[in-house]
Amino acid sequence: MQQVLWIAAGGALGSALRYLIGVLTVRWWGGHFPYGTLAVNIVGAFFLGAVMFAGSKPGLLSPSMRLTIGTGLLGGFTTYSSFAFETLQMIQRSAWFGAIAYAAGSAVAAVSAAGLGYGLMRAVTR
C-alpha cells in the first residue's frame, strides 16, 4: 500500500508539472501549436528510457524508485513516454512491422478516439 501512495504522489507531481509547462509554453509561444504537449512527451520519453535502463541494472535504481518515477511521476507527466519506450523495445528486438504498426496505429487510434469523444460530447450536450 505504501508503494501505491508513492506512485500517487509522483503522479500528482507529474500532472502538475505537465500543466505548468503547458501554461508557460502558451504564454511564451502562443497556443497555435501544442508545444507544451510536444515537450512533455519528448522529455517524458527520454526520462522513461533512462529510468527503465537504470532499473534494469542492479544497484542503479531500486524497483520501488523505478515504479515511483516511471509509473508515478512520468505516468502523470505523460503517457507518451510508455508508448515511446514500448516502441523502442520492439525496434531493439527487430520487430519492425510491430513497431511501425504500433506507432502508426496508436497515433491514428488516439486521434480517432479524441474525435469520437469530442463528437459524442458535442452530441450529448446539444
Q: What proportion strand? A: under 5%
Profile the largest sheet: none
- Spell the H/E element sequence: HHHHH
Query: End-to-end span in angstroms?
Result: 43 Å
Query: Could you list the spans in which at least 5 consecutive residues all have pLDDT below 50?
Result: none
Q: How many domains in all?
A: 2
Number of helices: 5
Alpha-carbon Rg, integer: 17 Å
- Which bin fits the share of residues in helices? over 70%
Describe this structure in words.
The protein folds into 2 domains: 2-93, no CATH class; 96-126. Helix 2 (35-56) packs across helix 4 (80-92). It is an all-alpha fold. The radius of gyration is 17 Å and the shape is globular. The chain has 5 helices and no strands. The model has no long low-confidence stretch (mean pLDDT 92).
Q: Could you give a quick summary of the protein structure above?
A:
With 126 residues, this protein is an all-alpha fold.
For this entry, give a set of tags.
globular, 126 residues
